[in-house]
Every structure is written in C-alpha cells, then in structure tokens.
Amino acid sequence: MAVVAEEYYGHDEAGIRTAALCTESAVDAGAVPNASRRIKLIRERKVNSSAWRNIRLAFLPEGYPNSVTPDYLPFQTWDTLQGLSTYIRSMLSTQALLTGIGVGQNTASVLGATFQWFLRDFTGMLGGILFTLFKGSNLDSNAKQWRLTADFMNDIGMVLDLLSPMFPSVFVFMLCMGSLSRSITGVASGATRAALTQHFALRQNAADVSAKEGSQETLATMVGMLVGMLVARITSGHVLAIWGCFLILTAFHMYANYRAVSCLCLTSLNRERVSILLKAFVSSDKVLTPRQVAQREQILPLPFISFWNKWSVKTGGRYDRLIKFGVRLSSVDFGPREVHAGSWKCVHLCRSPQARDIG
C-alpha cells in the first residue's frame, strides 16, 4: 500500500515537481505494528522547460527570486546596461591609445611603446595601492557613493585616453593619469561589489550570487566588444563621430549607474542613514523603513557628498553630529518640559526610580 504523505509543486529554479511517498510492507500495518516502512521520493521534470531553466541557472542565482533581495533584478539590469556602454567606449579609447603610442606608424619604436605601456601600468598599480591605503576602510559603509565614484573615475580615465593623442607633448602624462583613474575604479568597484553581494544574498549564497554576476558581466563584455568593434570601424578617422558616440554613451553610462544605485535598498547603517533616521524620528517620532531611507539618501559621488555634508552641518541638517551615543542616563537632564531651540527639539525623558545606568 502506498500513501502520499507530502507533495511539493515545483516552484524552484529547476521547475521540478516532487512527491514524497510513504510505502508500507505487504503485511497489514494494523496487524503487525512494527511493519517496515520506506520513504520514496518521485521527481518529475518538465521537458519543455529545460532551455529556460538552463538560462536561469547560468545567469540567475539558484532559487531566484526567493534567494535574493527584491532590489537585485533592477540593479543588475541597469548595471548590465552601464557595463555594455563601458565596453563599447573602451574600444574607442583603446583605439586612441594605440594611435598615440604609434601603432601603424613607420617611426614608432617597439621599445618606446613598451616603456610607455609600462609607465601606464605601473602608475595604475601604485595608485590602486595608495587608494586602498587611505580609503579602503570606508568602502563598505558608503557602497552606493563609492560605486558612483568608481564609474565617474572610469569615465575620466576614458576621456583622458581619448584626448591623449591630441596632445603629443603630454601624452605619457595623460596616459598615466588615465590609468590612475581606472585603478581607483578597479579598487572601489570591486570592494563595493563584494559589499552589495552580501546584501543581495538572503540564503548565505554570496558565492552563487557573485558567480552569476560574473556570467552577466561576461555576456555584457562579449556583446559590448562586438558592438564596440563595429562602432570603432565605422567611426575610424572621423573625430567628430568618435566623440559624438563617446559622449552619448558616457551620458547613458552615468544615467544607468545612477538608476542602478537608486534601486538599492540597503539595510545596514552608515552615517548618512543614521542622520536620516534621527532627523525623521526627532521631527515626527517615526522610524523610517529601509526603502524610505533609501529614497532620501544622497547617492552623489563622494566629492559632492563631502561638500553636501559640510553645508548640511552648517544649516542644521545633520543630526548625527549633535547626538552622542553610549552616555549614562544619570547624565541626562530629565524633566517634564520640552525645550525648543531654533529648529531643534529636545524631548526630556521620564526616568523611573528602578532605572539604573548600563555599561
């Protein structure tokens, strides 16, 4: 006799229907209480779903969408689009670099080109080490801002590469500065990607999320290189056409990056999010949700954020600078009144006789 104990309808990534069967021996279970029993699993796969299943397994984490946060898909969509524009532009900038080094010219020296390329790589490596030294510990807490900063620096590097052949006297200097900008991009982008991967992974599947992100980036790279080769061939020798395509793609690149970062709804706290939470709580006694905080958070690149923070403190917009954590309750001035000082609202708490200091 076979009895269906449980049945699961396949909503997983593989589209598999699973049935758990509890089977008893031929002896009547009522007559022989200790009759042997077995559990048998039957799995049925939909034949026509294998192609779509393989695509999902190649580019989406296992268990999607339940294994990642809701902001995963919109972020990855915009991130793939910005990556596509980057690889198309990289073909244009690489073409300009090779022209500046002297590829195709009879007067070009192999040793000279090798030395210029060495200086370029050496400057980039040194810049990456120095950037990690001074800013490495700040990348996790400001992942959104550093992500935009990384792409902004990448755009600067590509602009310098594209401009360098026009200024032969400072070609090597511009070559090195472009490499320096891209080294900052590499460090900041890689570090923030690791932080975002931890955010997306809901089932301790950070490795799977990272691997599938790599597949998506590889596909974008392949398509971008093919389209970039076509664009480079069409615009070869036409300076205005090259710059027109480059500027249009750069504008789209920054827009796509802004949209990607705007989709993020991070649940970790940093100074900016704490300031938003405290400001809302002091003004309205409400605790904002992560989505509400994300909508109010400044996501401009870091240089603009620094200026904003300095201006905001002067105008009374930064509550985290004026609130001190870890103080004893005995040091708080309790009372039944409420003090209003300008735009600040200080609410006094009532302390019970049983209250005591902690820490």
From TrEMBL:
<feature type="domain" description="Protein root UVB sensitive/RUS">
    <location>
        <begin position="48"/>
        <end position="284"/>
    </location>
</feature>
<dbReference type="GO" id="GO:0016020">
    <property type="term" value="C:membrane"/>
</dbReference>
<keyword id="KW-0472">Membrane</keyword>
<comment type="similarity">
    <text>Belongs to the RUS1 family.</text>
</comment>
<keyword id="KW-1133">Transmembrane helix</keyword>
<dbReference type="InterPro" id="IPR054549">
    <property type="entry name" value="UVB_sens_RUS_dom"/>
</dbReference>
<dbReference type="InterPro" id="IPR006968">
    <property type="entry name" value="RUS_fam"/>
</dbReference>
<dbReference type="Pfam" id="PF04884">
    <property type="entry name" value="UVB_sens_prot"/>
</dbReference>
<keyword id="KW-0812">Transmembrane</keyword>
<protein>
    <recommendedName>
        <fullName>Protein root UVB sensitive/RUS domain-containing protein</fullName>
    </recommendedName>
</protein>
<feature type="transmembrane region" description="Helical">
    <location>
        <begin position="156"/>
        <end position="176"/>
    </location>
</feature>
<feature type="transmembrane region" description="Helical">
    <location>
        <begin position="239"/>
        <end position="258"/>
    </location>
</feature>
